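Hello Y.,

Per our agreement to keep a running log of every chain we model this quarter, I'm adding this entry. I've kept the format consistent with earlier entries: sequence first, then predicted structure.
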Amino acid sequence: MFGLGVPELLIILVIIMLIFGAGKLPEIGGAIGKGIKSFKKSVKEPDEIDVTPKSDKDKEKPA
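Predicted structure for the entry above:
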């Protein structure tokens, strides 16, 4: 995994704990998890096409 071993990952984790504190780690992990889940979902789903009809106001030309 990108040439990172267990000692490197532990050092990164300690640095993150020093910056954010132990209390914020669950919130950060949850936010990262939701972001990854949303990204995977958007990659798997086909692009949506907007087929809503335009309103009458959009069809009229301004004078």
